[in-house]
């Protein structure tokens, strides 16, 4: 054993894949040496020349161990195992929730059939090599970092303990505390067990200079073997049962005899780095080292050394003999094969540079080719006449993608053509739900996006994503990451009543989030499963300077690193604080029955979400400062100890303990002391004084949150409890307990703020898929009176699905992480009294002349305000029309075939809204004609279609009635709540941009009245006015009063035609006339033969109507209409 020498050194020449060697293994069946590196690549080398044989990427993480069997090579990384044959073809891969932090593996009693894998995880895994499945799980009592097998399975733990297990039953037979620190390596042969490791001395880990030897029959220690350089790797000689190779990190190794410790042979490996792994061949003739510089060093003890005494032949590729080819002038160039290139050719285009180039050229008619006459190089042939000029064959383009719905227009075309739609009717068709242990992400968790056709967003099939009664929120709006939290707040019944009461008051704040939240909640209440959008709320949110300073705005182009979990947690804290400020007044109504008087200094938000906390700061000089604050959100504080034992203990800490320590905590910090007049170490305490009705919790972000802590322990009991109990005793000590889901909760009807039972009502989770933009989803438990199959619903923006409770509490997959929790008291309905909330709606806004324009001309008003006697009743008709301006241009792309694809539609904003009386003595007289002040830059006034000019929306120059958007919206909301029935043309798009949801029974749309369902064409208001009323409107521009009044007259005309039994015939005539004139009314010519003239229809206006300053006659209105036609 004294003639070892280095024969070969090799490394990977490709700098892109070269990495420190992390694992080595000689093949016991063939002359191969297998290596694994830190980048997850496995490479094999042939014979003593270390010629490259195979190389492949086996894992994304470093390879920690390699085990070679007759079927192939088994490689192990932290989260996966893979069996690959010796040519590099994958046989199976094992990666699931059970493979979280693997470190080592070894054979069981059945070589080449079963292996045992373990690591720093709860269970050891018995894996069938043939099938690649887990056949048994063995609970591990410690973190295992190295395993070897002889008669028993020897497991070296991170704590320095060696455990010996029966390889059949996996029961622990013996234990020995070999080292006080950690285990570096162990090896065993026969009845001998050798260990090396570290010991804890003075708080540090020091490498033990001894190799400890044990007899596993009696577990008695034998004489240790000294190795002053620090032993890190051990290998027993396979032929000489008492010879061991001891190696240090620096490359020094000894060849020793265990029975004779004085027989030592010293060697030094020539390495520029440090040794990372070693292995000894089954023949005992070769020794291999791997270092951190990606080098493999091969040593031998004789010439012509072999890895195995008898090896199987290696399968080599058959190299064909090149043919003898004679090249002449008439030989084809394809006779010569293409050479082999190591680099990619120029023709290998990346996917992001591949584009469609349009349809292939049409085939030439065979009749043309048969009758063609050639003159020089030009062919002439008579036209067979079987096609029209410029007519080509139409090629169908499949634009539909899997997992996305077809457009509504596409479905209608299929129905009209008699074709049945083969696509799924819902996103959830044939999709398995999550159970308690699943880790695969269902497709309905993916980020959803709206697709646009040439018909706009109305052509998108939102029903594909939502089959429930609850409305989703759209995503094409800036800062729509707030959608999940807005849904959670909506399903907080008391907050819904607070905001509904607030919008009925005369709130004067222009960008009031409480008002906008109330308007949004009213839409969600009336939606009945239809999609809504929070555009007005998010617009008001984007104008608040504090939100900008806190960094709450979503980036223009989010990427995979956008911290949505941090954004939603900060927004959760911000929105509750903002609502508190906006709802706080001198006469706050009492919601909590426990409060003494009807009026209280606590705002309604404080009474619902507030937790009173006493902050006590005490200096070393015994000076104490007390301060009572109200906290709306609890931030979970996870312990992050550096000591490994404590770190493991924190991961098993109960949720109740973490919540209690997050609320009631004591920290040491430096603070200013008025007595000492300097910054000194102080003790700060947080002591809760009361408990909230609704408990809002931020779950922490980043590396402070251990991912494993959220995973279920046994597949049934989740770490996150569904119910908790909190109690503050007389000494202000907080106690938090977890209640099982089947526990009968004692509903506390006393209204005490010192003790409460809570039930989980909502979870907001971040969904992150590798190399994709993360997004947020909400799990919400709906009220009991609205139960379906399960009380839990998943809100993924406009995708809504009823899910099981198991799916809510399943955090096995790393793609889902909770970020915000909401708990509600089980007795909140008995605790809160909302009868004192203001219920009267401020109707005076309809009777006031409100304008913020500095040049508002009251003597030239185009409307007459309502009087209290004219207050609309349920069913009152009101004609309405709106005009809009563009805040951003449409983003489109032109495909190679010339078609246009909409990437993002233009963003429109309400610029003018006009509402006319639809019945009564003043029928047709406008009572609202408001221009809306622009709060954002306008890129296009769309004057041709809106009649809005530059300056009309500027308070400094406008001469019209100019109001903020909130005032105009509040008027329309009030008319809607009073039960008005709106008459107009194309109201669906108008209401969508205004962001108000009107029930179908309160909408009369003339575009739907005069429409034949099996035809795609929807008739314009201008053409209907020309045909039915003999009027030319919108000749130069649009006017909302004219359009609203025209729609009202057309509706009245439809009632007349229906009563006379002529409606169906007239509707068919309109379509025929439209095809005849290409849907453009000829100027000065009216279809008098079909419909009686209605040119005097404007004379239905009252003869005169008064304003505060002047009288306006019908002639004045007619003159104004002629000056500004629509």
Automatic annotation (TrEMBL):
UniProt cofactor note: Binds 2 metal cations per subunit in the catalytic exonuclease domain.
UniProt catalytic activity: Exonucleolytic cleavage of poly(A) to 5'-AMP
Composition skew (Basic and acidic residues), residue ranges: 401-416
Organism name: Rhizophagus clarus
Annotated Gene Ontology cellular component terms: P-body; PAN complex
Gene3D superfamilies per the UniProt record, alphabetical: Cysteine proteinases (3.90.70.10), Ribonuclease H-like superfamily/Ribonuclease H (3.30.420.10), YVTN repeat-like/Quinoprotein amine dehydrogenase (2.130.10.10)
EC number: 3.1.13.4
Protein name: PAN2-PAN3 deadenylation complex catalytic subunit PAN2
Lineage of the organism: Eukaryota, Fungi, Fungi incertae sedis, Mucoromycota, Glomeromycotina
GO biological-process terms attached to the record: mRNA processing; nuclear-transcribed mRNA poly(A) tail shortening
Entry cofactors: a divalent metal cation
């Amino acid at each position: 054993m004294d003639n070892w020498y280095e024969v070969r050194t090799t490394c990977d020449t490709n700098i892109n894949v070269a990495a420190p060697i992390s694992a080595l293994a000689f093949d016991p069946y063939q002359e191969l040496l297998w290596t694994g590196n830190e980048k997850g690549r496995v490479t094999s080398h042939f014979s003593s020349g270390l010629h490259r044989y195979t190389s492949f990427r086996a894992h994304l993480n470093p390879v920690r161990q390699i085990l070679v069997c007759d079927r192939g090579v088994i490689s192990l990384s932290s989260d996966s195992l893979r069996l690959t044959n010796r040519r590099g073809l994958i046989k199976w891969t094992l990666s699931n929730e059970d493979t979280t932090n693997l470190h080592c593996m070894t054979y069981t009693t059945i070589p080449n059939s079963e292996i045992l894998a373990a690591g720093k995880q709860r269970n050891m895994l018995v894996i069938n090599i043939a099938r690649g499945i887990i056949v048994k799980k063995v609970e591990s009592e410690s973190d295992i970092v190295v395993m070897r097998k002889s008669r028993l399975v020897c497991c070296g733990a991170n704590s320095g303990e060696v455990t010996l297990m029966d390889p059949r039953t996996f029961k622990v037979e013996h234990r020995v505390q070999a080292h006080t620190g950690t285990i570096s390596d162990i090896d065993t042969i026969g009845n001998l067990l050798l260990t090396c490791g570290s010991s804890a001395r003075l708080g540090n880990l020091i490498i033990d200079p001894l190799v400890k030897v044990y007899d596993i029959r009696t577990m008695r220690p034998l004489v240790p073997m000294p190795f002053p350089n620090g032993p890190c790797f051990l290998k027993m000689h396979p032929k000489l049962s008492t010879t061991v190779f001891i190696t240090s990190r620096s490359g020094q190794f000894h060849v020793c005899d265990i029975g004779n410790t004085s027989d030592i042979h010293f060697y030094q490996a020539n390495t520029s780095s440090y040794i990372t792994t070693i292995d000894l061949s089954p023949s005992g003739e070769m020794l291999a080292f791997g270092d951190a510089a990606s080098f493999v060093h091969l040593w031998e003890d004789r010439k012509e050394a072999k890895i195995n005494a008898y090896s199987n032949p290696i399968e080599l590729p058959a190299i064909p003999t090149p043919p003898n080819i004679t090249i002449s002038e008439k030989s084809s160039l394809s006779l010569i094969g293409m050479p082999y290139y190591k680099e990619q050719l120029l023709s290998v285009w990346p996917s992001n540079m591949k584009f469609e180039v349009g349809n292939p050229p049409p085939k030439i008619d065979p009749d043309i080719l048969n009758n063609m006459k050639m003159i020089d190089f030009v062919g002439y042939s008579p036209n067979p006449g079987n096609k029209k000029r410029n007519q080509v064959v139409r090629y169908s383009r499949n634009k539909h993608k899997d997992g996305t719905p077809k457009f509504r227009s596409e479905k209608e075309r299929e129905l009209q053509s008699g074709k049945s739609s083969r696509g799924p009717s819902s996103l959830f068709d044939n999709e398995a739900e999550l159970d308690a242990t699943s880790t695969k992400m269902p497709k309905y968790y993916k980020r959803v996006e709206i697709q646009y056709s040439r018909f706009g967003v109305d052509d998108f099939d939102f029903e594909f994503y939502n089959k429930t009664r609850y409305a989703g929120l759209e995503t094409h709006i800036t800062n729509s990451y707030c959608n999940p939290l807005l849904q959670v707040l909506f399903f907080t019944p008391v907050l819904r009543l607070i905001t509904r009461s607030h919008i009925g008051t005369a709130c004067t704040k222009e960008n009031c989030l409480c008002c906008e939240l109330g308007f949004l909640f009213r839409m969600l209440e009336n939606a009945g499963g239809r999609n809504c959008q929070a555009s007005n709320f998010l617009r008001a949110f984007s104008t608040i300077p504090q939100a900008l300073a806190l960094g709450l705005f979503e980036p223009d182009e989010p990427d995979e690193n956008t911290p949505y979990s941090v954004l939603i947690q900060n927004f959760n804290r911000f929105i509750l604080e903002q609502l508190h400020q906006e709802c706080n007044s001198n006469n706050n109504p009492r919601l909590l029955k426990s409060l003494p008087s009807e009026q209280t200094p606590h705002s309604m938000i404080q009474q619902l979400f507030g937790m009173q906390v006493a902050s006590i700061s005490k200096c070393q000089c015994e000076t104490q400062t007390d301060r009572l604050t109200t906290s709306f959100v609890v931030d979970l504080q996870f312990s992050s100890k550096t000591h490994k034992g404590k770190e493991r203990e924190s991961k098993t800490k109960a949720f109740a303990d973490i919540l209690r320590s997050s609320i009631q905590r004591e920290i040491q910090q430096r603070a200013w002391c008025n007595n000492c007049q300097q910054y000194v170490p102080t003790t700060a305490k947080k002591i809760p004084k009361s408990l909230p009705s609704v408990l809002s919790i931020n779950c922490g972000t980043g590396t402070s949150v251990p991912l494993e802590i959220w995973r279920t322990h046994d597949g049934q009991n989740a770490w996150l409890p569904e119910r908790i109990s909190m109690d503050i005793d007389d000494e202000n000590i907080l106690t938090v307990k977890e209640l099982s889901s089947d526990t009968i909760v004692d509903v506390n009807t006393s209204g005490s703020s010192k003790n409460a039972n809570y039930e989980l009502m909502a979870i907001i989770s971040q969904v992150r898929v590798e190399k994709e933009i993360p997004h947020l989803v909400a799990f919400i438990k709906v009220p009991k009176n609205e139960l379906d199959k399960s009380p839990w619903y998943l809100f993924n923006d406009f995708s809504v699905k009823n899910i099981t409770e198991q799916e809510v509490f399943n955090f096995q997959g790393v793609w889902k992480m909770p970020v915000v929790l909401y708990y509600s008291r089980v007795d909140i309905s008995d605790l809160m009294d909302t009868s004192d909330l203001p219920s009267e709606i401020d109707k005076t806004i309809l009777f006031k002349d409100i304008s913020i324009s500095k040049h508002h001309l009251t003597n030239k008003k185009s409307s007459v305000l309502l009087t209290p006697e004219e207050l609309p009743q349920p069913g009152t008709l009101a004609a309405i029309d709106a005009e809009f301006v563009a805040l951003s241009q449409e983003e489109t792309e032109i495909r190679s075939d010339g078609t246009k694809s909409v990437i993002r539609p233009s963003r429109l904003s309400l610029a003018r809204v006009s509402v006319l009386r639809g019945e009564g003595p003043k029928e047709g007289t406008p009572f609202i004609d408001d221009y809306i002040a622009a709060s954002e830059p306008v890129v296009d006034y769309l004057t041709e279609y809106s009649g809005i000019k530059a300056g009309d929306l500027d308070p400094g120059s406008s001469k019209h009635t100019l109001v903020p958007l909130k005032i105009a919206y509040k008027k329309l909301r009030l008319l809607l709540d009073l039960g008005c029935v709106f008459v107009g043309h194309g109201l669906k798009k108008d209401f969508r941009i205004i962001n108000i949801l009107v029930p179908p029974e309160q909408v009369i749309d003339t575009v739907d009245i005069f429409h034949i369902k099996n035809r795609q064409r929807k008739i314009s208001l201008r053409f209907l006015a020309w045909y039915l009323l003999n009027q030319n409107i919108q000749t130069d521009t649009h006017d909302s009063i004219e359009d609203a009044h025209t729609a009202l007259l057309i509706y009245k005309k439809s009632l007349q035609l229906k009563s006379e039994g002529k409606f169906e015939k007239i509707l068919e005539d309109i379509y025929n006339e439209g095809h005849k004139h290409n849907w453009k009314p000829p100027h000065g010519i009216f279809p008098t033969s079909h419909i009686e003239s209605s040119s005097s229809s404007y004379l239905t206006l009252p003869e005169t109507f008064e304003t505060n300053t002047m009288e306006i006659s019908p002639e004045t209105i007619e003159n104004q209409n002629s000056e500004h036609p629509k």
